[in-house]
Specification:
- This protein is mainly α and 239 residues long.
- The chain has one domain.
- It is 81% helix and 0% strand.
- It has twelve helices and no strands.
- The protein has helices spanning 3-13, 15-41, 51-66, 72-83, 88-110, 113-118, 122-133, 135-144, 150-158, 164-188, 192-197, 202-238.
- The chain starts with a helix and ends with a helix.
C-alpha cells in the first residue's frame, strides 16, 4: 500500500481535527504565561475565597482546562498556593469535569470523521477495537504523565469513542498522583510566580516526576505493542 496518498487523504479529510489538536498544545503555554504575570501583579486575586467563590473558581477552571486555556499542572500549583488542602477535592473533581467537557468538544469538532477514515483499513479498525478494550488502562497511563498535554489527550482519547463514565473515572484516577504532588508543591510555595516558573520540588520530587513519565511511556508502549500484535493476528486470521 502506498503510504503517501493515504497520509494526504488523512490530512485532507481531517484538517479541522489536526488543527484543533495543534492548538490544544500551543494555547495552554501562551495563556498560562500571561496568567502567571497577572497573578504575580495581583497576588491577592484568589486569596481568601468564600465557599461560593471557590465553587465558581472550580467551575471556571473546569472550562479553561477543557478548552486548553490553562494546563493542569498550572492549575494544581496555583490552587495549592491559594486554596490550601481545603480545595484539593474540588480540583480533583474539576479535572474529571474538564475531561468530559474536552471529550464532548472533540466529538463536536471531529464528528467521528477520524474513526470513519481509520475504519476503511481493516488492521487499523481492529487496532482501534483492541485499544478500546484496553481503554481503562490506556486512559490512566496517558493521565499519569505530567508531560502529555491534558486537553490534547482528551481529544485523542475521544476519537476511540470510549464510554463517558469510564473516561471520567479513569481520568481522575490517572491524574491523582501528579495532581497530589503538584498541589503539595503549590501549598509549600511562598511566591506564586516563582513556583510557576521553577517549582522547587527537591530531588525526591524530580525523581517522582521522572518515574511517572517512565511508567506512562513504558506502559503505553507495552499496551500498544500488545494491541498491535493481537490486531495483526486477527487481521491475518480473516484474510
Amino acid at each position: 500500500m502506498n503510504v503517501l496518498p493515504v497520509l494526504r487523504a488523512l490530512l485532507r479529510e481531517n484538517a479541522s481535527t489536526f488543527i484543533s489538536m495543534l492548538l490544544l498544545v500551543v494555547v495552554p503555554v501562551v495563556v498560562s504565561s500571561t496568567l502567571a504575570v497577572v497573578l504575580y501583579q495581583y497576588q491577592d486575586l484568589l486569596a481568601n475565597l468564600s465557599w461560593g467563590q471557590m465553587l465558581l473558581y472550580f467551575a471556571v477552571i473546569s472550562v479553561t482546562m477543557a478548552f486548553a486555556l490553562t494546563p493542569t499542572t498550572f492549575v494544581a500549583l496555583v490552587s495549592g498556593f491559594y486554596l490550601g488542602w481545603g480545595g484539593f477535592a474540588g480540583i480533583v473533581v474539576s479535572y474529571g469535569i474538564a475531561a468530559l467537557l474536552g471529550y464532548a468538544l472533540a466529538q463536536l469538532i471531529d464528528h467521528g470523521k477520524m474513526m470513519s477514515f481509520l475504519n476503511r483499513f481493516e488492521k487499523a479498525r481492529i487496532l482501534m477495537q483492541e485499544l478500546r478494550h484496553e481503554s481503562w488502562v490506556l486512559i490512566i497511563l496517558t493521565r499519569i504523565s505530567p508531560v502529555l498535554p491534558f486537553a490534547l489527550m482528551n481529544f485523542v482519547l475521544s476519537l476511540l469513542q470510549i464510554d463517558k463514565r469510564k473516561f471520567f473515572i479513569a481520568s481522575i484516577v490517572g491524574m491523582l498522583p501528579r495532581t497530589l504532588f503538584f498541589y503539595w508543591v503549590g501549598t509549600q510555595a511562598r511566591d506564586v510566580l516563582s513556583v510557576l516558573q521553577s517549582p522547587d520540588s527537591g530531588t525526591g520530587g524530580k525523581l517522582l516526576v521522572i518515574a511517572l513519565i517512565i511508567i506512562s511511556i513504558g506502559g503505553l508502549y507495552l499496551l500498544f505493542d500488545r494491541a498491535l500484535k493481537r490486531a495483526l493476528q486477527k487481521a491475518a486470521g480473516k484474510s
